[in-house]
Structures are given as structure tokens and as C-alpha cells.
Amino acid sequence: MLKIGDQLPAGTLFEYVEVEGNGCSIGPNAFDVTKETAGKKIAIFALPGAYTPTCSAQHLPGYIAQADAFKAAGVDEIWCVSVNDAFVMGAWGRENGAAGKVRMMGDGGALFTQATGLVLDLTAKGFGVRSQRYSMLVDNGVVKTLNVEGPGKFEVSDAATLLAQAQG
């Protein structure tokens, strides 16, 4: 499992881009994790699924609400990662006002999630392989803080906890 001090694993995440520009076309675009984190401080939070109760009511909204505070703390970008496709992540982000605040990064095949070792197998509940709920600060691709939730919990991966770590 990924731990503090580790380099993020290489991988590709997909983001639905609403406006063509900066070399991106409208629709799902692939982003290389190593290239996207190089020289940046990124707040990453991951969750089991878009549109799920805790994720929709608390996890994502907290990061959207605190986006300016993260910027003030020196964080360049905030990423929401979930084992969903880019279309679902894009729609969920649109409905929650994430544009310009949180990048909605889909890991449809769970390949990045598997590479981190932060997998949550919810097959028995009809969800398949998903991501554990966690948050982390990544600086130039290196994990500086990592907050992994216990099963069914939402206590340490919230925006307030990660923001305090970014400010500290």
C-alpha cells in the first residue's frame, strides 16, 4: 500500500474536459499522473463512487467549498479520484459546481487505484472493485501526508483535515 514518502505510481487518469483548449479536446482526456504532478503540490482525495451518499453529501462538497483556502495554503490543484469513467465524473462535477475548483479524475479500470494498493472490493454489494476513501498531499509526485479511512468511515479524509495538514 502507498505510504508517506512514496512516489505516486505511474498511471493514467481521465478527466472530462468541458471546453476545448490547452491541447485538450472536449470530452474524456487522458492525463499522465507523473507529468501532471511534476513540480506541483496536489491535494488528492479518493472515494468509492460518484453519486454515492457520503461522497455526494460531504466528501466532494467539502473540497469544493475549501478550494480557495487550499490555494491560499500553496496547493496548486485538488483532484477527486474515483473508480468511475470520465463521463460520470464530469457529470457529477458539473452538478456540484466543481469546475475550476476540483479536477474530477476517473479511474474507470481501477488501474491507478490498484497501483496505489488502496483498493476496496465491494463486489458483494454490487459495486465491484473501488477505491478506499482517502486523502493525501502530494508534492512533486511524492506523498507528503496520507489519510486512509477505516471501512465505512468518514473521519480523516475530509477537506478540513487535509487543509490543516496543507497549512501546517
Automatic annotation (TrEMBL):
Thioredoxin domain mapped to chain residues: 2-168
CDD domains membership: PRX5_like (cd03013)
Catalytic activity: a hydroperoxide + 2 glutathione = an alcohol + glutathione disulfide + H2O
E.C. numbers: 1.11.1.27
Highest taxon listed in the record's lineage: Bacteria
A molecular function (GO) term: thioredoxin peroxidase activity
Keywords from the named record: Antioxidant, Oxidoreductase, Peroxidase, Redox-active center
InterPro entries named in the record: PRX5-like, Redoxin, Thioredoxin-like_sf, Thioredoxin_domain
Positions annotated as active site in the UniProt record: 55 (cysteine sulfenic acid (-soh) intermediate)
One GO BP: cellular response to oxidative stress
Gene Ontology, cellular component aspect: cytoplasm
Pfam families, sorted: Redoxin (PF08534)
Function summary: Thiol-specific peroxidase that catalyzes the reduction of hydrogen peroxide and organic hydroperoxides to water and alcohols, respectively. Plays a role in cell protection against oxidative stress by detoxifying peroxides.
Family, as annotated: Belongs to the peroxiredoxin family. Prx5 subfamily.
Descriptive protein name: Glutathione-dependent peroxiredoxin
Species: Sphaerotilus montanus
Source species taxonomy: Bacteria, Pseudomonadati, Pseudomonadota, Betaproteobacteria, Burkholderiales
